[in-house]
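ok new one. same drill as before - C-alpha cells go in, u give me an amino acid for every spot. 401 of them this time. try not to just spam alanines like last time pls lmao
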C-alpha cells in the first residue's frame, strides 16, 4: 500500500491524497461503502460501481459467523466472493464489543447526544444478558443468530481477516460506550494498545493473505472516548507502532467530534492515511475532512434509505410524508443518480407504501450517490482552493429549516 498527499488545505489539517492498494487506487478523501456481510444491502456490486464508490468495507464478526472465514479463503477472498472489482476493507470485530455489549437492546449509539442540562442521554433498558464478555486476553461473543459461544483474541481477529483477504484490515480493539466514565475509558484504551501490538505481531507472522496471495495493510485504532488527554495519549502510543495507517474509533460527543478528531490527527503521522470509523453524516464529513480524515465509513445512508429517509441539498426528507404521494418532481433536482434521473417522489412514495423491495434499492442508490459524490465535491473544492466557500454554501442550504 502507498499513500501520497497531493494537496493540503491551507491552515488546516485537511488534505487530498491518493491511496494505492493491491486492488486499485482510492482517491482521498473518500466515503467507504459498508457491505457488512459481503453485500451492500439491497444493491449489487454493479450498482455500487455506477454510484461512483471506490471501496467497500465488510464486517469481520458477521462474515466469521456467516458464511465463515475459511469458506471465504477458499473462494479467493472478499472481493472475488462478492464480485467486487476494487479495493476492500474489513473492520476487526471491535465494534461488536460495543454493539453486542453496552449498546445491546438500548438506543445508545457511539455518538453521545446531550440534553439541555448538558448531560449525556441514556438509552432504553438493556435486554437481559449482554452478548459479550471482555477479559485481558480477548472477548467472548454469543452469536446473535443461535446463541453459540465464540472467542475473539487479537490473534484470532487478524487470522480471520487474513482469510477474508481485504486490502486494508484493522487491529482488534475495544470500542467503548459514550456513557463510559474516565476510568473505564482509560482501562479500555490501555487494553486496546496491548491488543494493537499483538495484532501487529500476528499480522507479521502470517505474512501475505493465503486467500488472495496479496500483502494486506494493517491499520491501528486510536481510542480514548471523549477525553482529550486519553485521545492524545492513544494517538501517541498507536502512532509509535509500525502500522500502515490509522483508524479513529470509539465514542464521541456530537458537539465536540471535530475537535476530538483534530486532537488525534495533530499527533498521528502526516504521511499515513487516517480512517474515521462509523461516521458519515454530511456535517461530519466536512468537519472530518477539514481536520485531516482521509476515509469514512457509515451504515447510515443505506439504513435510513430503507426507512424512507433521503438526503437532498436542502436537508433530509421522509418520503412517507403525505405531501409526496402526488409529488411528481425529483427527490433532488440537482442529483444525477438513477433514482432522480428516472423516477419521481410520487413513484418512490408508492413503492414504500406498497412495501415493494425496489423502494429500498432506489432509495439506497440515491443516498449513497449523494454521500459518495459529496465527498468527491469536497475533495475537488480543496484542489480548487474553494473548500470554505463550498462548505458554507452546502451547509447553509442543507441545515436551513
Amino acid at each position: 500500500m502507498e499513500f501520497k498527499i497531493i494537496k493540503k488545505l491551507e491552515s488546516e489539517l485537511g488534505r487530498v491524497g491518493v491511496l494505492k492498494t493491491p486492488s486499485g487506487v482510492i482517491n482521498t478523501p473518500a466515503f467507504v461503502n459498508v457491505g457488512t456481510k459481503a453485500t451492500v444491502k439491497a444493491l449489487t456490486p454493479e450498482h455500487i460501481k455506477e454510484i461512483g464508490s471506490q471501496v467497500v468495507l465488510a464486517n469481520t464478526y458477521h462474515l466469521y459467523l456467516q458464511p465463515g472465514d475459511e469458506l471465504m479463503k477458499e473462494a479467493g477472498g472478499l472481493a472475488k466472493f462478492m464480485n467486487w472489482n476494487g479495493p476492500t476493507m474489513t473492520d476487526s470485530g471491535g465494534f461488536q464489543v460495543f454493539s453486542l455489549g453496552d449498546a445491546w437492546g438500548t438506543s445508545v449509539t457511539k455518538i453521545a447526544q446531550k440534553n439541555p442540562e448538558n448531560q449525556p442521554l441514556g438509552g432504553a433498558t438493556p435486554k437481559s444478558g449482554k452478548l459479550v464478555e471482555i477479559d485481558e486476553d480477548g472477548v467472548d461473543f454469543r452469536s446473535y443468530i443461535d446463541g453459540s459461544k465464540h472467542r475473539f483474541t487479537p490473534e484470532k481477529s487478524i487470522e480471520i481477516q487474513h482469510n477474508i483477504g481485504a486490502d486494508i484490515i484493522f487491529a482488534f480493539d475495544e470500542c467503548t460506550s459514550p456513557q463510559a466514565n474516565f476510568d473505564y475509558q482509560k482501562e479500555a484504551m490501555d487494553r486496546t494498545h496491548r491488543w494493537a501490538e499483538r495484532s501487529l505481531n500476528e499480522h507479521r507472522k502470517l505474512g501475505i493473505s493465503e486467500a488472495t496471495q496479496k500483502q494486506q495493510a494493517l491499520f491501528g485504532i486510536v481510542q480514548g472516548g471523549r477525553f482529550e488527554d486519553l485521545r492524545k495519549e492513544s494517538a501517541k502510543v498507536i502512532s509509535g507502532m509500525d502500522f500502515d495507517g490509522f483508524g479513529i474509533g470509539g465514542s464521541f460527543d456530537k458537539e465536540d467530534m471535530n475537535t476530538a478528531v483534530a486532537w488525534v490527527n495533530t499527533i498521528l503521522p502526516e504521511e499515513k492515511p487516517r480512517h474515521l470509523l462509523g461516521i458519515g453524516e454530511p456535517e461530519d464529513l466536512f468537519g472530518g475532512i477539514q481536520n485531516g480524515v482521509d476515509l469514512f465509513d457509515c451504515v447510515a445512508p443505506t439504513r435510513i434509505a430503507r426507512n424512507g429517509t433521503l438526503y437532498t441539498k436542502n436537508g433530509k426528507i421522509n418520503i412517507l410524508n403525505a405531501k409526496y404521494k402526488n409529488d411528481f418532481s425529483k427527490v433532488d433536482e440537482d442529483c444525477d443518480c438513477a433514482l432522480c434521473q428516472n423516477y419521481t417522489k410520487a413513484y418512490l412514495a408508492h413503492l414504500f407504501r406498497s412495501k415493494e423491495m425496489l423502494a429500498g434499492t432506489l432509495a439506497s442508490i440515491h443516498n449513497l450517490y449523494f454521500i459518495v459524490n459529496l465527498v468527491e465535491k469536497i475533495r475537488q473544492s480543496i484542489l480548487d482552493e474553494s473548500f470554505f466557500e463550498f462548505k458554507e454554501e452546502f451547509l447553509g442550504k442543507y441545515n436551513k429549516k
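Residues 309-398 form one domain. and btw The first helix runs from residue 45 to 51.
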